[in-house]
Amino acid sequence: MTTQILLVEDDETIAMGIAFALEKEGYHICRVSNIKEAKGYLNEEIALIILDLNLPDGIGYSFCEYVRTKSEVPIIFLTVRDEEEDMIRGLDMGADDYITKPFRMRILLSRIQAVLRRTQKEETHILECKNIKLDKNQGRVYKQDEELILSKSEYKLLLLLMENKECTISRERILDYLWGIDGTFVNDNTLTVMVKRLREKIEEPTEKLIQTIRGVGYRLEA
After folding, report:
1. What is the pLDDT of residues 174-191, one digit of tens each?
2. pLDDT higher at 123 or 5
3. Which of 25, 58, 104, 152 has the greatest number of CB atoms lying within 10 Å of its CB?
């Protein structure tokens, strides 16, 4: 699968040059020029974000903070702002690297490869939340090391929640996800029943893991 990179850069000449060089290396580039467009491209398929600081509708720091409330996708700042405090601020808020303009394309490529190698190495097939452990390779779920028997839909729902731990997932997104996975229609009431059954299997009587966000959806909390 081609690695997708979100490039947020309002200078068309620079953006075209970066996109051309990265596409030659086999990357797929989603190129946008402002924060509003960038938010529309933010999804689980984006493997890395290259982010300018000075954008027409705001500053890159604000988009970085927005991303960090939703995802751990790696971010590389690429900007003319070369002051030490700017670099420290960017790294402190969760950026993985900070490159100043002008830059050499080979250096940018090297930094991108280094960040992707590091983050991909950190990826694990084991997901955990309190005493619940999900092994994606085996397709098994354990509670205090005792295997739980889940239906296919319950497993897919738990996987979605654990991959987005601490994030609220709308009912609509969950329904779309289950529709796409199973190829069968899952209505709103069925989802409520499914969540109830999953809670009975993974939660303790005194501890809730799946939180209902009224009018929105659900969130798995550690």
Report:
1. 888 887 655 456 667 889
2. 5
3. 58
